[in-house]
Design a protein that fits this description.
Blueprint (H helix, E strand, L loop, with lengths): L17 H7 L28 E8 L3 E8 L4 E8 L6 E9 L7 E7 L2 E8 L5 E7 L2 E8 L3
Antiparallel strand pairs: 1-2, 2-3, 3-6, 4-5, 4-7, 7-8
């Protein structure tokens, strides 16, 4: 799986304590000043790999879209968050876990031009929590895509 479309300008998030999860997990907030609500929503870019189908998505203010995908062959969910318009690197973080677990299963973070992720969790028969932030705009979905 190639991540050649992204440029890492910062340090990848290595771990987050349980206290930080509540800080990282609030519902989506308003877009920062200068965000264009009229920009076309980013389409899913296939970053999770072959066999993954989009099962959920959520807007990231007016600056991007986060996607949750699932592969029935592997039983894994995968998330990726994509900017509407690639540009100068901005801070992006993405987390995923099975609902009811204390800490995330996978994470990606740093400064990127176009997208963050993919992140994966094996969650067949479980619900999924996935959240993050993009250029200071928080997003998240909790207890989704159960089954």
């Amino acid at each position: 799986m190639s991540r050649t479309k992204r440029v890492l300008q910062g340090v990848v998030v290595a771990g987050v304590g349980a206290a930080a999860l509540t800080t990282l997990a609030p519902a989506a907030s308003a877009a920062p000043a200068g965000a264009s609500p009229s920009a076309a929503a980013a389409a899913y870019n296939g970053a999770c790999g072959s066999g993954y189908k989009v099962v959920n998505s959520t807007p990231v203010g007016g600056i991007g879209t986060a996607y949750l995908t699932y592969s029935s062959a592997t039983g894994k969910n995968c998330a990726v968050a994509i900017r509407n318009v690639a540009g100068e690197p901005v801070s992006m973080n993405l987390y995923i876990r099975r609902t009811g677990t204390e800490i995330f299963a996978d994470t990606d973070g740093g400064s990127f031009r176009s997208y963050v992720g993919p992140v994966y969790v094996k969650a067949a028969g479980s619900c999924v929590d996935w959240w993050g932030d993009m250029d200071g705009v928080y997003f998240g979905e909790y207890g989704t895509n159960c089954g």
